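User: Could you write out the 3D structure of this protein bound to magnesium ion? I've included everything you need below.
Assistant: Certainly. Input first, then the structure.
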Amino acid sequence: MDLRPLIILPTYNEIENLPVLVPEVLATVPSASIVVVDDGSPDGTGAWVEQFAATDDRVHLVSRPTKMGLGTAYRAGWRWGMERGFDPLITMDADRSHRPGYLPEMLVRCETDADLVVGSRYVAGGGLRNWPLRRRILSRIANHVARTLLRLRTRDVTAGFRVYRAATLAMIDMDSIRAEGYSFLEEVLWRVERAGLRVAEVPIVFEDRTAGTSKIDHREVYRAMGTLLRLAFARWHGRTSHDAAAGASTDETPSGSNT
Ligand SMILES: Nc1nc2c(ncn2[C@@H]2O[C@H](COP(=O)(O)OP(=O)(O)OP(=O)(O)O)[C@@H](O)[C@H]2O)c(=O)[nH]1
Ligand SMILES: [Mg+2]
């Protein structure tokens, strides 16, 4: 595998985090490039990326006019990267909850034995730091419900810290995924497992954000449940993930990622 890693950072109002995170990522994986997918952040996140990109040609900006949801931000970043031959394609949150220090090991796993590598909070050695009890409980419930309904083997199914081989994204037909927000991550994983692809989990400690505001809201949780029920229904009826997408009711929701 000829590594040309691309790191996709979806952003909505992360001006306090990017100036620290971007140099940290480039210092940790100098061979990587970064594309920031910014949804017209009112706090000037996009303008900062443009300025930085003028000083370093490894950094790029995809600017979208309005807040369009995390799922579509990932897809826009994947598409941008695959059109330019990047492989693998990495997703990380831009609020410094996902630490760059885990990237080298996740890249080695992707190169050696996995089609998808997940930075996992819920395997031995993984964990959470400074996350409020409410979020911890919500995350455990969301993971347990999704893993049970969809019979997923992966332990952390809602994590947004992932390394995808380009071939994996091509195989799961990313353009037909209807879910948004958290459930986008679960539908992607469901398709990867159903395609018989190899998923590896590298333990990470997820740090609660210390700057910027959360994009999570309760509506997102309800809509994620809608997606899970749609996929579970499809599974019960032995329909493939593609059929499930075709028959789906949309639950387009702009919001954050790490339940
Ligand atoms: N482009 C884009 N990025 C988004 C959108 N919603 C969230 N993000 C980004 O997605 C990442 C995850 O969102 P967070 O708000 O951190 O979600 P979370 O980690 O579940 O919640 P926190 O506890 O607040 O960190 C962050 O980098 C956000 O800036 C969106 O609609 N569009
Ligand atoms: Mg976060």
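The chain has one domain: 6-244.
User: Perfect, thank you.
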